[in-house]
Amino acid sequence: MILRKGLILSIITFCFIAICVLLWKEYFRYSLPTIVPSNYTSIKTGHHTSLFKEYRDPVLLHFFNPKCPCSKFNSSYIQSLHRRYKDRITFFAVVEQAQINEYKGLFDFDLITDDGSIADSFGVYATPQAVILKEGKLIYRGNYNKARFCTDKDTYFPEIILDSLLSNKPLPNMPSSATKAYGCNLNSDLNYVTTQ
Amino acid sequence: MITSNKNSSELINIKPQFLSYALSSLFIFGLVISFVYDTYLIAITVGSLTLFMYFSTLKLAPDKLWYQYVGSLSLGVFMAQFIYQMHGMLEMHFFAFIGSIILIYYRNWKNQIPLATFVVVHHAILGYLQYAGMEEVYFTTTDYMPLNTFIIHASLAAIIFILCGYWSYEFEASARISHASNVNLTRQLDIINKGIEFAENIANGNLDKEFKAEEEDKLGVALIKMHQYISDANQKNENESFINIGIAKISELIRANDKQLDELSDMAISFLTKYIGANQGSLFILNEFEGEKHLELMGCYAYGQKKYIKTSILPGEGLVGQCYLEKDLIILSDVPKDYIRITSGLGEALPRFVVICPLIVNDTVYGVMEFACFKKIESHKIELLKKAGESLAASINSLKINLHTQKLLHETQVQTESMREQEEELRQNLEELSTSQEDLSRIVSISESQRIEMKIREQVFSLTTILSESDLYGNITLANEKLCEVSKYSAEELIGKPHNTFRHPDMPSELFKIFWTTIKRGETFHGIIKNKAKDGSHYWVDAHIVPVFDESGNLKKFIGARYHITSDEFAEKMYNLQAQRLGLPLLEDPQYAK
Q: I need a surface site. Which of A19, A107, B387, B550 has the fewest CB within 10 A?
């Protein structure tokens, strides 16, 4: 009886811990800010790069990792965003070389395979992240929403930026919740970290 | 917390499968919604772990209610999983309520506790994190949940859990009541079925079946009464038929053995002993010997050694003798230690029960029976013994009468025989008599002719001879015609007269002295005597007087024969010669004196 009770209790404990671990790994972990890589160099908005200079329309780079659960949280939102702005804005999905095989045409826009250099150029170290460029100038780099599932109506940050850009309005100041990264680290950074 | 409360689950017939199906369905639901946000990993891993947790508990302790509590927890985990899978969709919180409702099925309010606890802890942690400033911690899709909203949310959850728990409790209570009434009904049905079975047994005549009625089982009590009644009636019947059969057999025995008293006694006692199931029996029969009454052992059954038994008992001696005097049964249920012992090949034992029964009919005791037994002899058997005693008494009586009659008959026969013999003798005598009679008649006929001849002779005689007869005293008994002619008397005058009637005075008395002396000597007197006739004249006779003797030689009578001498002269001369010879005086007749 006692043995059985103990066995059941240990099974329950094991399962519960396992569930907690799983949920943590797949879910709650992403509620915390992403660890900043040690060699991270912050790139400020307004920084000019040679990348995507040729595009006249604003460009939105969607840093995406198909393996990252957090990246998938807002995929549907990204799709709807693309549908709304595709005529005036060019969308690109940026996927790292390592995860390119898992990406299976999830989005309706073009894919760019990154070896880490593009991310580094814009100071991106986590997915999902949005980067908005206007003729090579970094306009915005940050989260899509305060909420991971892009459910907060007041904090659709890229939309605010894009609307301002398209209507040539001065860009509003973004709160810290817009720039503080949540989600998975980029694979290149992790590699870097581990190789350190 | 996880206490054994299996009674309720057992009595309400609850299936653990219900929760299994529910959790499996939730698992599938998790797989389905994983399409929405691509959450297969969580749906499969968390769902599988949850199911594993639940099913292993169910498998390991199917007899406990633990699976319910683990299932309750699992429902909470699925809720959390769905909230995660649907990215905090508020509607997924309803799964807590669905889980709570699912748990009502088990009618165990306690199983709400793990789910409620899980939900409270889950919400509290996440809510705390949110309020602690970690704005990025979301468990709702709303960007911000104010405290009052959370309170309402929590209150609703609390109400749901409390209500569901309450329903569980209510349902359990009503289930218990219905179960109790069910149990009661089943019991009643069982009682009725038993009653039916019992009644069927009675109907089939199987009265030996035991039946015990419960206190409230009125039908059972009635059945028992009925059973008792029928049993009693049956017992009575059986007892009566036992008695009747016993009496019939005894009568048969008596009929078959109505000649020998000792045989009958032996057969009757051994039959009765066996029939009433006694172990030992003996039969004493009253005998009278030289006017003294005593009870004699005539038959016994299963007595150890016959020679040790007292074979003759006086009235009033011991219980048997007492029974004879009292003319009533003696029943001993507490047998004294030194009383008879029942013996068998294996040993001997003291009987527990002894019945002594008189053989009595018409208030007369003819004998006494005694039975010993290990167990109590029932009253109907004793009744049988009484009746058998009567039969035996009657038969012994009739047997005795028969014997007496036979004896009488025998005596009569003997007498008859002797009478017959006497008769035969008589007959022979008669025959002889008749023969002798014939002889006699022949003789008579002979003597008749002789008589006639005699008469003729007599007539001839009476022409010449004067004949008379006299008794010993000289009285005339017979006188013939010649005498009457000569003496001139009639015969009638002469009979009975003395002879000296004829005496003539001329005759001296000395002559008559000689005369009497002679005849009395038994000698014949012969002489010449002068007699006197009726007219006074005289006549002379030459007389011969002869004495006659009987067979024994005694003088019987005298017969006198005389011849009439008609010449006086001749007669006188003859007489004088006679007188000279006798020395008597001569006749003084002048005629002769010359």
A: B550
